[in-house]
Write a structure and sequence with these properties.
The protein is an alpha+beta fold. It has 4 helices and 3 strands.
């Protein structure tokens, strides 16, 4: 199988971007947590995403790192994007700074604690 054929086997997700985010469409690949791209149209986002994926795979190979197989990311990549209000974003940033952790760590902790409380009341 050629490299181009292999690239096309990787699943991707496309979502529209808001006007505040510049409009167009965002493409991401569940098998590669940090490989994203965008485009003005769905078709452009797909082409840009394929280009980004090729570059990501080339970079992994050049560093001697493993390249995930298509569909190895399953349906849960461990990554999701959440839009919030500016005030909530500011509160989270201040709280993370106070606790000396990243906002990502803070939000993960808050979510895990909340889910744990919900599970214990069932």
């Amino acid at each position: 199988m050629s490299k181009a054929e292999r690239i096309r086997q990787y699943p991707f997700e496309i979502r529209p971007l808001s006007a505040d985010d510049g409009g167009g469409f965002l493409i991401s690949f569940p098998d590669f947590s940090e490989c994203i791209s965008d485009g003005e149209t769905v078709e452009e986002a797909i082409q840009n995403g394929i280009d980004a994926l090729q570059e990501t795979i080339t970079a992994l190979e050049s560093m001697g790192l493993p390249v995930p197989e298509p569909n190895s990311g399953g349906s849960y990549s461990g990554k999701f994007i959440q839009r919030t209000t500016k005030s909530l974003h500011a509160q989270l940033a201040v709280r993370a700074k106070q606790e000396g952790v990243s906002m990502n760590t803070l939000v993960n902790t808050l979510l895990a604690e909340s889910l744990g409380r919900r599970e214990s009341t069932r």
